[in-house]
Every structure is written in C-alpha cells, then in structure tokens.
Write a structure and sequence with these properties.
Helices cover 68% and strands 6% of the residues. The chain has three helices and two strands, in the order ββααα. It is elongated and about 50 Å long.
Length: 101
C-alpha cells in the first residue's frame, strides 16, 4: 500500500480505509441492483406485459433510493467538507431527496 509522509512525519494512506471501501461497495451493489431491475422492467414493457406499469413505478422508487444511498455514502466519505455549499455533493443529495417523493 502506497503512503506518503506529511511535514510532521505522520503516515497517511493513499487508498481508502476498509470502511470507505465497504461503503463504496454497497453503493456499487445498489447500482447493479437498480440496473438489473431496469433491464427486467424494460423487457416487460417491450413484451407488452400488463404488469409493466407496476415495474416502472418500482424502478422509479428504486432509483431514487439508490441515489440517496449513494450520495449519503459519498457525504460520509467526504466528511464535513462534503456538506459545503461550494461542492456539488450537497446539491446532489438535496436533489435525490426531492425526487424520492
């Protein structure tokens, strides 16, 4: 694992900690789940399945929840700086929460 030293001699890891990797993996898994659901529902819509409308609503809800979970994970990883209005993460989280309803 690569590392570098600060001016005071403390060693900092360049690669994410196990907690950060777990959060990123969780967000990636949710993204894969949402994509699989979209593909399944798209197939149902293309086939003219009468229950496809329910699937479309499920995709919308799943995508909104996935977006919230992913941006919340990014906010936790970014720490206090992620909540700054100067960055885009705060806006993405606000937009994702607005789409939930």
């Amino acid at each position: 694992m690569r590392s570098w030293r600060s001016r005071r001699g403390a060693t900092w890891r360049r690669w994410p900690t196990p907690t950060v990797r777990a959060r990123l993996a969780g967000a990636a898994i949710r993204h894969m789940e949402a994509r699989a659901l979209v593909r399944e529902v798209a197939g149902a819509v293309a086939a003219g399945d009468p229950t496809a409308q329910l699937g479309v609503l499920a995709v919308k809800a799943s995508a909104a929840e996935m977006a919230i979970e992913a941006t919340e994970a990014a906010m936790r990883i970014g720490g206090g700086a992620a909540y700054s209005k100067a960055g885009s993460l705060e806006r993405h989280l606000r937009d994702a929460r607005g789409r939930r309803r």
